Every structure is written in C-alpha cells, then in structure tokens.
Amino acid sequence: MDKQEKITELLADPNLVRRLSECADTDAVKALAAENGLELMDAEAAAALDAIGESELQRSELDAVSGGIVNPHIPEPVSQPCG
Questions:
Q1: What is the DSSP string of the chain?
Q2: pTM recorded for the entire structure
Q3: What does the pLDDT look like over 27-54, one tens digit per residue?
Q4: Which of 12, 22, 26, 73 has the fewest beta carbons closer than 10 A?
Q5: CB-based contacts of 65: which residues, under 8 Å, 6+ apart?
C-alpha cells in the first residue's frame, strides 16, 4: 500500500479525523500518523493541519450561519405589502 492509499484509509476513520482536528502542531500530527503506521514529513504534517483548519468554520462564520450576527455583505430582505 502506498502512502496516499494509507492516508485515504486513515481519513475514513471518523475517530482519527477528530483526533487529527485536535492536533495543535505538526509534531502532534506526525505523532498521530506514526501511531497509525504512517511516517509524515514536516511539510505533509503542515498541509494536514492547514486542510483541517480550512474545513472547520471559524467562530465568526459559525455566528453568521447560526443567526448570531448580521452579515453586512448580505442585504436584509425587504418586506413587501401583500395585495
């Protein structure tokens, strides 16, 4: 099995993905990968951190979609009288 196939297999495990999302730095990502039989280079671990960070909503984005704030870039609906 090549490295890409191993990564694909590991990312199919929701528990492992959750643990990856909790990693604070590249050393933690590399340690988690090593626990699962995969050796990552620093650049690969950094790319994994970036990918996980991009997939999660930022607090401001979460507020916007949950109704916590008004997004100034989206116009408010204008009520039209019926009839």
A1: --HHHHHHHHHT-HHHHHHHHT--SHHHHHHHHHHTT----HHHHHHHHHHHHHHSPPHHHHHHHHTSS--TTSPPPPP----
A2: 0.61
A3: 999 999 999 999 999 999 988 888 877 6
A4: 73
A5: 57
Confidence of residue 4 (pLDDT cuts 50, 70, 90): confident
The domain ranges of the chain are 1-7+25-56
Amino acid at 65: V
Considering Cα of 53, then 56, then 58, then 61, what sign does the dihedral take?
Answer: positive
The token pair at 23 is 């990693």
How many Cβ atoms are within 10 Å of 77's Cβ, its own excluded? 6
